[in-house]
Amino acid sequence: MVDNTLTSAEIKRRGLAAIEERLRRGPVRIVKRNRLAAVVVSGEDYERLTAAGARDLPGMGALEWLLSSPPAGRRSRREIDASLKRERDW
């Protein structure tokens, strides 16, 4: 497999041309401070990947997906409602 990695410094130096050049070889790994920061894929690959994901969850829209996700916050509903009330009453 061909190493298809770009550093953030090279992107700053060469801009989008550096990414476009590497995309011809496939997905591009973006490295910042010696850590993987992102992976860039072509528009075609992105469409293919997102279409595949939609097939995996037939009939599930964004709202259903959000509602089926476990809660990530630490505040109770009462705390959130009180905070919103304070913001609205200022």
Topology, element by element:
Layout: E1 5-7, H1 8-14, H2 16-23, E2 28-32, E3 35-40, H3 43-56, H4 62-68, H5 77-88
Parallel strand pairs: 1-2
Antiparallel strand pairs: 2-3
Which labels suit this protein?
YefM-like fold; three-stranded mixed beta sheet; 90 residues; 5 helices; alpha+beta
Provide an overview of this structure:
With 90 residues, the chain is of the alpha+beta class. The chain has a domain at 1-58: YefM-like fold (3-Layer(aba) Sandwich). 53% of the residues lie in helices and 16% in strands. The chain is built from five helices and three strands, in the order βααββααα. It has helices at 8-14, 16-23, 43-56, 62-68, 77-88, and strands at residues 5-7, 28-32, 35-40. Strands 1-2-3 form a three-stranded mixed β-sheet. A hairpin with a 2-residue loop joins strand 2 and strand 3. The chain is elongated, with a radius of gyration of 21 Å. The chain starts with a strand and ends with a helix. The model has no long low-confidence stretch (mean pLDDT 82).
